[in-house]
Every structure is written in structure tokens, then in C-alpha cells.
Amino acid sequence: MKPKKQFKANLVTLSVLCAFSSFSSLADDNEQAQVQQEIEEVVATASRLKGSASAVIEERKNQAFVADIMGAEQISRTGDSDAASALRRVTGLSLVNDKFIYVRGLGERYSSVRLNGASVPSPDLTRSVIPLDIFPSSIIESLSVQKAYSPNMPAAFGGGDVNIRTKSIPNERVFKVDIGASYKDTNDKGYTYEGGSDDWLGTDDGSRAMPGTVRAALNRYVNGLSDISIRNIRDVESKALGSDIGQDAAIALNKDLIKALPRDYGLTEESLNPDFGVKAVYGDRFDDLFGFGGSLGFLASVAYDNEWSNSEEFSAVLSAVDAAATGDCSTNTFACYSAKNNKQSTKNNIKLNTSFNLGYKLDGHDLTATYMQLRDTEDEASVAIYQEPSKSLSIADGQVQRSHTTSFEERQLDILQLRGQHNLTWSLLDGVGVDWHYTDSTATTEIPGELEITVRDEYQNGQYQRTFYNGSLGGNPYLYRFVDMEDQVENWGLNVNKVFYFAGSDLELSGGGYFIEKTRDYRTDFFNYRFAQTQQLELAQSEDEALNIGSYFSNDSMVDNTDVEILFQEPTADDYLAAQMIDAYFGAFDYTINNNWRLSGGVRYEDFRQVALAFSRSAFDPSLLADKLSSEAIEQATVLENDYFGSLSMTYSQDTYQVRFGYGNTVVRPDLRELTPVQYQDPLTDYRTLGNPYLESSYLDNFDARVEFYLESGDNYSIGAFYKDIDSPIEALLTESDGRFTLQFDNADNAVVYGIEAEWMTELHADMLGGAFFTSGNITVSDSEVSILESQRGDLTNLERRMTGHSKYVANLQLNYDSHNGNHQASVIYNVFGDRILAAGVNNFDDAYEQPINSLDIVYSYYPNFNSTITFKVKNVLGQDFEVEQNDVLIRQKEMPTEISLDFSYEF
């Protein structure tokens, strides 16, 4: 059984203390229901490509604000398995770490993600934006990316808003099963370890979790006191008994805690299984089921994926600013590097997603209830060899540092959503449309147990000799980490609209509210072994034995015969509690004249309140935390903002083209984690990262223009331009001390982003090789500049540069083929983004740039009959690796596999 969460009452207390008290049952917009109606009415004609795209193209054409839409059939065509990989096909979007979307070259902080119009929390420990790879494509009806702000959307809008719209109830019975398998060319061998019996389900069976005896020891020895060291145990127990228990008894109690922890984490190198997945969807619709009229329907789905990824990784620190000119960097030697780390990492990802939709439609009323559980678990085992000659750590010096890490991170998102659309026909309310939603969601992230072992390898004449550790080396040779985070979000909203018709024109007025209540509880606990200075450990005599150092202390007798004690390694502040509330109200208009001119806009008011409090277990008694916090501490940690945000869009339309102009005033607020002075390791930059409680929100002025062409043949083109002026943008700034880099968030002075983007879908040849050829794609070219004040320089090299994460270009190109008989479909898909700053340079070193990755995928689908589909896909045909360069020298590299997959689906 998993340990129960704590501090529920404290989160409520903090909310009350911050005057988080105004609630309402009003709420959101009607875009989802309208889209569903449009999609249901579409009948596919001509080719699969044009038939599947017609609905979403028509929707984009009818949008009052600049937006891009991607439908389920388009996602299926590219063979993308989740929302993240599908969205990188959209104009101006690029994918980072296979999880996060950058819109128009801006970082993930400038992208917001909603589910059917509702805000839901992120289960990612280091990002506020939801990792989009947790949403399987099997539940997605369409993806909408709105790039121009409208008042019915949250004001926290930067590059764009991604709305994931899930499938609703079917028009008739549907039962579809999909099975698939894939092979990666980097997965011939990888590291595994003995886990738990439920690992295949993506959940720990308790074998890794912190034992109850250790948790009880923390409550007894640590809270408000010191740690679980032998000295502190002796002091606490002697004081409780009224007499000295003696050193031996204290040692025995401390070693009992070591024995209680999981200690069998030896690694094995073996062949990895192929990836495989299973998906099933079943639904039905019943008309006039109980004699009351209307239609009742349901749609249930389940998706399971078991994926392995093994990669060789390299990271290094440059030895000099002019390293490229003074050394031969191509040989990966210390001519260019002062330190380097070679790592092999094996990850096993389990995704288990279930969803159930229940819907009822009657005379203009549409009710939908949805429940989703999305689980994404990552189980990692890695071995790293670190060398730093200045510390006599290199093969030439005879010693290197070896690190083994085993980590099991379970992420889960539970969502309950109720939605309704009502077209009223009652007297004075005739013609009034009402849309509402209520969403209750919980994101949890648990690392039930992570162990990092850091020891030494000895070399002689370049040959491995042994693996050892002695107490004089210090450090944290055996370091345990346990993490538990829970985000709870309630989001509800209402939108009321009515259309007024005049001679030659019509006016739609709408208004409503959007309300969010969010709480977060983040806890992490660290333990490490401390050995006596004279203690010597002979861990291995061969490289095969060295893989098993994670099991060295699995035998109790080894613990008893070693001069070792366990300590509670608690930083000054590594836990935090946070609460956030947003009350928003908006009014909007949409005025159309002669079906040619359209003027849309409105105003949104948001009242934003947030508090984030960092603390240490050793500093507070958790049961008394809220009582111990002073009102001054709470006031300092509280952010109160309220403001108005406006938008205006003008569209001129003809049968074959449209011209759009738009303006929006928006805000980008710092994430809860960024506001708390808690350290963590950022997985994207690999830097130690520290929050800043003094961050301010960034305000943006957004300008958009676009011309769209829609031809009778179904071909369409568009070209647009955008400009963003950002006041006080939040940037990640680097500082250096004691040879270590720390990344900290701060507000720069200002920034601008501007660019152009083009998109097309056109027929190349209607009758060639027994079918039709089409091309589709998009290109975005842009630039940005951020200015940092001299007072914020720290160790930074450049005070003016591109924004972190911004790419100067993003391109997506597709060549598509559809056979006339409908049996064959194929696509060649190319994606590339320009280099982008991963981390700002310090101490006269240039900024570190992530290099472009040219991604080429091939997808072929065969339809042997109406019910079945066979899909063959080759992903990353070019096999290009992830690389980061600084001063034109490679400082990071990671293998990216070429993946071959085969998928079979059958619809009954």
C-alpha cells in the first residue's frame, strides 16, 4: 500500500490565509461543442488526405482568430502515437525532449495546454506544461493550436494555446483493436535490474518505497531536530529513557534503518525486448433508449505501450574559450575538455491509458461525462564514467569516477470532466447558447526509490583493474532519493452567447467566466551512507562484477561488518507547498458584415492569487507547519495580480481567400517551482537549478497577420507574420561557483520575437502510379532578441542574445500518396528546426546551442479490406543524434535511434 498523502488541511489553510475565497459556478467557451458538430457532419470525398483534412480546414477558415487544426485522420496518416509527436507537424511548432512543444520557436513557458478547453495539471516534476506524450493519439479527435489570443482563453498566453480535443460518443457501434511492435537499432543490449512484480503495469509494488520503519524514524529523530545519525539517535533515545543507551545500541538502531531500505540494485547487461503496444476502442449509441427521445452513447478506450530506449550519452566542460582553436576536439580528448562524462542509459517506459466517455443528446442539449487515467512511468538504469584531470581523475591518472543510477518515476494524471452544451428555445431566451464545463484533475509523480552510487575505478596502463571506495574520498557514495508530488486542479467555466441578425450583418455577443483552483504538495527525502575514514570497500575485480555494486550491501552481514552509518541528507529547503487561484470573467463580440468583413474581440479580467512556501523537514514539524509560518512569511511568498487583457481581430473574406489581422495583450506567469528557492536537476539542461521567489510576471503585446487561400480543388495556402513585444521576460541565467554551474530564473529587461510563416497543401499529380500525389507542409522563419540588465549580468557572457529555446527556423514537409482504389497510402515526412540556445554562456564562454536535427520518417499503410489496416513505419531514417555545441565544440551528445515499427488494426 502506498503511503497516504499529508498536509491536505495545510493547503486549505494557506489558501485561506491568502484570501483565496471568491468562487463561482460560471465558466468557459463553446468551441469544443461547435467543433464536434462540424466534424460529425463531414463526409469524406476524393482522396483520403483531402477528405480527412476538409473538416479541419473548414474549421480553421471559420475561426475568428489565427489558428491551426490537426484532425485524427491527419495524425493517423503520419503514424504519430501521441499528441506531442503529432503536434510537431503543425506550422511553427517544434518538439523538445519528445514531450514539450515550442510554438514559434519560443520555450515551453510560452505554450499553454488545455484538454477540451479545461486546464489540467502537469505530472512532470520540472515543468508546469503538460508533457504531451502522455496523451495517446487513439483518444484524440483533433488538436487545435490557436496562435492569436482571444478573450475566451486564459490570459496566460505566449506563443500559442494547444487544445487537445478528445473523441466524443460515436454515431454508431465501433469496436477497434490495434496491436503493434517496433525495433530500435540502439536497443541490442541495455541495462536492467531486479525491480518489482508490477513494473510491467507502470507502478511500484512497494519494493522500492520508503519502509515504514524509516518513515517513523524520520518523524522521531528529524522533525524539528537534526538527523538520523548515530549521535542524534543516541541523544533522542537516551533522553526518552532517562539514561544513556550506549554507542553500540545507537549503532544497531542506525544500521537497522540501512537494512530496512531496498538494497538489491545490481545491474545486468542483456538484450532488450522489442517495443510493443495494444490499443482497443469500443463504443455504441442508442436512440430513444427509454422512450424519452434523444441519444445515449458511450466510448471506452484502453492503450498500453511498453517501450525500451538505450543510448550512449556524452557531456563535457570546455577547458578554454578558444578550445576549438587550440586542441583537436574531434578525438574527444582532454585537449578541449577540462572534464567529461560518458554515460550509457537504459529506460523502460510504460504507458497505460484508459478513458470512458458517456454522452446524452436531446433537442439541442448535449451532455458529456469523461474520465481519464493517463499513466506514464519511466524506469531508468545507467552507468556513467566521469573524468577530470585537474582532480587526478582520468584513465591516464589511474582513477576515474563511476556512477550507477537506478530510478523509477511514476507519473499519473486522473481527470474527471463534465461538459454541457444547450441551445435554448424558451421565450426570451430563444437562440441563447450556453456551454459549461467542470473538470477535477489530479497529477501525481512518485519516485518511490532512486539510488545513485558514486565510487572509483582503478586503471593501470589504460586497463581496468578494480572498483573500490574508501572513507577518505567523502562525497555521497550511496545516495537514496524519495519524491512525492501531488497537484490538484479544479477548473470550471460557463459561456453564454447569442446571435443578433440584421440586414446584411449579424452580431454574436458572448460572455462568461473561467475559474481555477490549484494546490501542490511536493516532498523529497535524501539519505546517504557515511563511511569511517579508514573504511575500505573492494567492490569489484572485473567490469562485469562492477555492474553489481548496487547489490553490495544486499546482505545484512555486509552492513553489520562495515563501519557505516546512514544520514538524512536534507538540504536547507527542498520541499514546498503551493496554492493558486484564478477568477476570470470575459465579454466578447463577433460582428460580420455582408459575409465579407468580420470584426472580433473583447476583454478579459483575471484576478490571480498564488502562494509558494519552501521548507525543510528538519526545520518544521509537518503537523504544525501552518501554525509555525508567520503571516510575514506568507505575505512575502504571495503573489496578487489583477488586470484586464484585450484582443481584437479583423478578417476580410472572399470565396477563395481571407486576410486576417489581430492584436492581443497577454501575460506569462512564473511557474510554482520557479518561485520556490528549491534546488533540482533540470533533465533538459542537466544543470543544477534554483527557483527565485522574486520573479515577476511577463506582459506581452502580440501582433498577427495572415493571408489564406482556399481553392476549389481543395488546395490551400497561407502566409503570415507575427511580432511579440515582451516586458520583463523570464530567462534562465547561469552563475558559476566552486566549479559548478547553477541555473537560476530571473526577469530580463525586455525581449522581442518576430517572423513569418507559410503553410500549404497542394496536389502534385492526380493520376500517377495508380494514385494521387500531394505535398503539404509549413515553414517558419523568425528571430528574437532579449536584453539583460548589467545589474543582472552575474557570470553571463552576453547581455543581448536570442531568447533561450528560440529557433530561427522550423520546417515540416510531407510528400503524400493515395491510391485510387483506396488500398494504399504513403507519406515521407521531414522535420527540422534551427539551432537554439540550451543554456546561456558564462565566464566569456559562448552560449551553448542545441544543433538542428534533420528528422525523416516514412509511413506506409495498406488497407486489405474495409475493416483492417496494416501500417509500416521507419522513424528517424537519417539517424541523426542530439548534439549541443559551445564555442563550435561538441559538449553534449545523445544517440537517437532509428525505429522500425509494424502495426495492425482491425475494426469489427
Automatic annotation (TrEMBL):
Coiled-coil-forming residues are none
Signal peptide start and end residues:
1-27
State its location(s). Cell outer membrane
Q: What is its main location?
A: membrane
* Domain annotation TonB-dependent receptor plug: ranges: 64-150
Kindly give the InterPro entries that the UniProt entry links to this protein.
Answer: Beta-barrel_TonB_sf (IPR036942), Plug_dom (IPR012910), Plug_dom_sf (IPR037066)
Entry-linked SUPFAM superfamilies: Porins (SSF56935)
- Which key words tag this protein in UniProt? Cell outer membrane, Membrane, Signal
Q: List the GO cellular component terms.
A: cell outer membrane
Q: Extract the PANTHER family matched here.
A: PLUG DOMAIN-CONTAINING PROTEIN, TONB-DEPENDENT RECEPTOR
- Recorded protein name is Membrane protein
